[in-house]
Amino acid sequence: MEHAQEEEACLEQTQRYCVQRPIYNQELLQGQLHRRQRTPQTLGQKIAHSCRCSSKKAKSSLYSFMPILKWLPRYPVKEYLLGDIISGVSTGIMQLPQGLAYSLLAAVPPVFGLYSSFYPVFLYTFFGTSRHISIGTFAVISMMVGGVAVREVPDEIISLDSNSTNITDVLEYYSARDAKRVQVAVTLAFLAGLIQLSLGFLRFGFVAIYLTEPLVRGFTTAAAVHVFISQLKYLLGIQTSRFSGPLSVVYVSTAVLSKITTTNIATMIVGLTCIILLLTGKKINRRFKKKLPVPVPMEIIVVIIGTGVSAGMNLNESYKVKVVGSIPQGLRAPAVPQIQLNPAMLGDAVAIAIVGFSMAVSMAKIFALKHGYTIDGNQELIALGICNSVGSFFQTFPITCSMSRSLVQEGTGGKTQIAGALSAVIVLLVIVAIGYLFEPLPQTVLAGIVMVNLKGMLKQFRDIRHFWRTSKIELAIWMVAFVASLFLGLEYGLLTAVTFAIITVIYRTQRPKYRILGQIPNTDIYCDVEEYEEVGTCSSALCSLIQWNKDSCGSLLLCPTTLHACAMLAAEHSPVLKERKKFGLVVKLKNDVEATAKHEIASDDLPVNGKFAESSVQDMPLDEHEHFVLPKANIHSLILDFTPVNFVDSVGAKTLKSVSRGVCTDAVFGFCFVDPVTNELTRLNFFDKSITRELLFHSIHDAVLACQMKHGSAAQADSNL
């Protein structure tokens, strides 16, 4: 009793509306509305308008191309400057060791990681639209670059157990090999930049939507596994060849395991110590995040400690611990990249360009949503393209947004890309002044930094449980992206994952569903009759189509059995027949009359409310079954809700016309369309004397009331059942 009173009180508090208006069909409504007059433009007029230049248009284009011109004059110094300085210094300190470490992944000398941490970061300040992301080296992109560099310039193991002359030859060989790999990396940066620039100017920023979250997360998880395994040889001090292409992860694992007995104990101890220190530092930063003004820069601390210990104990000479080696002081003069028109490299550049853009724009959208501003996907493509293409003239390899550094830049109070410019200045000081101090830094320290930074991406294995609960199709996309990228390589894996994701979209769109709708009592709202007990039905069959497909929906509606099944389902939920069920007024058919009643029973392969039901009737004796069916319902109208349909082509229009003419002569059709679909039907000559705009309605309720007025009230129709 109390519960009923609470429901009544809740209903009284619910806001209500009452509207009295005529029953509108398309023709009546269009007669009362006045369309806006639009003068159509010819192609020449459109081109002339786009080429027309004015001071206002030129200023808008310049601001769009260089966003810094818009926000820098309005920069609030007192509110933003201190936070940007702290953020820039913190990010720059983090940028330095990561630039050195990720150069190992890219298979180039460490100094080129510093170059890639300076030029692109500085350029993005002028052309980027995100205020918080940190541009520079990133593990996944560096791994992709390293795979191409190793494939184009294969690694060879040369024995060093000979005289000094041979050692000199070996050093010259390695120097020449590294120079060739640098050229490959620089060429990739140039090609990837050109591709991103082209896509940006062509307004192709929407391509990121095809890289869905499950696909990107599965891909980056596989890339993290690739990176982790590739760093094992540096962590353990093992000398092995680098592999790329399909099954490279298997070859690398096999090579490391086959030479596990040659592990350099000193190298392993230094590397594991650094990993422990880094993990401890991250835990401290996470636990005391609210109390610390800035995160403890554990990476640069580990680099300084590792460099000091290596130089003091002479680890390279005494314990054969490999170190970074020569870091040239100063900046290199710009040089034109040596464009190698290798079709395979072009495909790699496309993959790097798209993955790099996807990483950057996804991170930028997160921060933009959090801080209440917008980003321009097309301008982000242009900005990344400039960073990569212009940076390639200064010997940089491809870059993108770094997730870990972006979180630090935003979390330490960064408000604009002034913080990014300051981080670039920090790296510049190291390149110009003190870079040589890091020459004794052990490579195992850099490997430890890379491995610890993979922790966040490796946690994405938890996605399997999440997607298992939420969406099996998204789980399939994640698994295909992960497995394909892991075993086929990152380039082929990305192509396979995108192809599979597109196939899943096609699969879902080519299996359209329909719903039999019923009316919620005393409202103009219609819902699925199988979902809610309160939903009643009228004597019109209401069918909501998610997508109009000629082969599925067309044949479905042309089939008399389907219409009778709709009638049966509508009758099941009819209030009149619910009362008849209580008194046993349900026809019971034996198997010997099954054939004569077939037109009243849904066939075994008939979709029931959008899904196909399986039946095992044929596998069992006929005399063991009884079919309970309702009397044949009298459906006088069929209303199709096409409002979820976005477009219709000529084949669909012809099929729809055939359906409206061929179902039955005594049934009246009603259609609910959105205006764009109605316009398409007009252009396709869908309307004629038999199919007029009087059959089109803007809402389901208008269509139902119009049909009821034409054939009598709903109560009278129910009494005829």
Automatic annotation (TrEMBL):
STAS domain boundaries: 622-707
Membrane spanning stretches: 100-127, 133-150, 184-211, 260-280, 292-313, 349-369, 381-398, 418-438, 475-507
Location of this chain's protein in the cell: Membrane
Molecular function in Gene Ontology: secondary active sulfate transmembrane transporter activity
Domain of life: Eukaryota
Pfam families membership: Sulfate_transp (PF00916)
Recorded topology in the membrane: Multi-pass membrane protein
Keywords from the UniProt entry: Membrane, Transmembrane, Transmembrane helix
GO cellular component: membrane
Keyword Transmembrane helix: yes
InterPro entries registered for this protein in UniProt: S04_transporter_CS (IPR018045), SLC26A/SulP_dom (IPR011547), SLC26A/SulP_fam (IPR001902), STAS_dom (IPR002645), STAS_dom_sf (IPR036513)
Protein name (database record): Solute carrier family 26 member 5
Species assigned in the record: Catharus ustulatus (Russet-backed thrush)
The encoding gene: SLC26A5
